[in-house]
Specification:
Helix content is 48%, strand content 11%. The protein contains 15 helices and eight strands. The strands form two sheets. It has a five-stranded antiparallel β-sheet. Strands 6-7-8 form a three-stranded antiparallel β-sheet. With 392 residues, it is of the alpha+beta class. It is elongated. α5 runs antiparallel to α6 (155-175). A hairpin with a 2-residue loop joins β3 (37-45) and β4 (48-57).
Length: 392
């Protein structure tokens, strides 16, 4: 193995992905896609391998990096490697990210949300910041990353990436890895994003036309049933397409969605109206012997639900553009209409499964509002059916 020198490190070429060159004794130089070069030391603690950034080259010379690496190795040998806020070394941002995911995100949020978060991290954050020590990341570093994303025209993603980085930094502060959150200085630094609400129909006339089209839909019977189910229950599209027969309690007339399917990882009860129960009885002959209530047409064994786009495509077939009505729009339609009809915001929000921040209040809502939610869900189904028969 060739020992690194100033000249060798200086001449290391940029590649599409970050890569390491080993110096020995756990010391490596990491070359980032943007040309930055960071000293990384590998060491073992508690039977696990760790990586720590020693700083940026040439701010930290080859000789200084070797001294710092040796100090870390010595500390590790005597079991005295403590979390270090910002003296000469700091944990890699990738390690903080992994710890944050394992302790704060995966245990409490739905798999779909976790997967989307990991996708953004892998696509944008890790390539740019993963091999940098957390204490070396400042507002300018984050701004450069977000503006690079902005330049691709995905403004909303730039904001989401900044928010994710801020969450990770706030975890790092609480865990003793850092002392400040550099994203606070970027509150007005990014381009304003256009807030896009899920397209939905809220006027009585429009609701009547929509329900008539759903009732007369001439496509696949399972998709037609899923459209009605979406209207009656106004749950999230992902929850509906993955609904299972085993989650239906016929005696209690409830659909109990498991916590691992919910965005906030809390079990959600959906009271089922007379119309919804009749809908389930009607399609039981079609999919009752399968896992999913709404199985995909290509899944002969019923082990796959209808596609993510099935409801949206049906709405397009009925003549609605993406700006007029969306699969998610049934939620906004119900929320707006029920509110105008005088139903309590608490009851509506609880049925929408929106998060209640106060834990004791959340328990109260779950227990005490179920009877009223039952009445509301029956009223909503009656209202939708009446709009088909006697539109206002």
């Amino acid at each position: 193995m060739q020992k690194l020198t100033y000249s060798i490190v200086k001449k290391l070429q940029i590649k599409d992905k970050a890569y390491y060159i080993c110096d020995g004794n756990g010391l490596n130089i990491s070359v980032m896609p943007n040309g930055a070069k960071y000293w990384i030391v590998r060491y073992s603690a508690n039977k696990k391998e760790h990586k720590t950034s020693l700083g940026k080259f040439p701010d930290i010379s080859v000789e200084k990096a070797r001294i710092l690496a040796a100090e870390i190795k010595n500390r590790q040998k005597v079991g005295n490697f403590a979390k270090n806020a910002c003296d000469n070394i700091s944990p890699l941002f990738s390690h903080i990210i992994n710890e944050w995911l394992e302790k704060r995100i995966k245990p409490v949020l739905s798999p779909d949300y976790v997967n989307k978060t990991i996708m953004r991290i892998n696509s944008y954050i890790l390539p740019a910041l993963g091999n940098i020590g957390i204490c070396e990341i400042n507002s300018r570093t984050i701004l450069d990353l977000c503006r690079k994303i902005e330049s691709r025209g995905i403004i909303d993603t730039a904001h989401r990436v900044k928010q994710l980085i801020g969450q990770i930094f706030r975890y790092a502060i609480a865990a003793g890895y850092g002392s400040s959150d550099p994203t606070f200085a970027l509150s007005n630094a990014l381009q304003a994003r256009r807030i896009r609400h899920h397209a939905c129909i809220t006027q009585n006339k429009g609701i009547a036309e929509l329900m008539k089209k759903i009732y007369s839909y001439d496509g696949k019977e399972i998709v037609k049933a899923a459209l009605k189910f979406s209207a009656f229950t106004f749950c999230r599209p992902g929850e509906i397409r993955k609904a299972e027969w085993g989650e239906i309690d016929y005696e209690k007339r409830e659909w109990k969605i498991p916590a691992d399917k919910m965005k906030m990882r809390r079990t959600h009860i959906v009271p089922l109206s007379n119309q919804t129960m009749q809908l389930l009885y009607n399609i039981k002959s079609i999919s009752g012997n399968r896992k999913y209530i709404f199985p995909g047409s290509r899944a002969k064994d019923g082990n796959k639900p209808i596609s993510e786009n099935a409801i949206s495509l049906a709405l397009r077939k009925m003549g609605y553009s993406s700006d007029e009505m969306s699969a998610h729009g049934f939620r906004g339609m119900a929320s707006t209409s029920l509110s105008e009809q005088g139903w309590s915001p608490e009851v509506i929000e609880r049925q929408l499964a929106h998060a209640e921040k106060n834990a004791s209040r959340a328990a109260y809502c779950h227990a005490e509002l179920l009877p009223e939610r039952r009445r509301m869900m029956q009223h909503w189904s009656d209202y939708l059916e009446s709009m088909v028969r006697n539109p206002q």
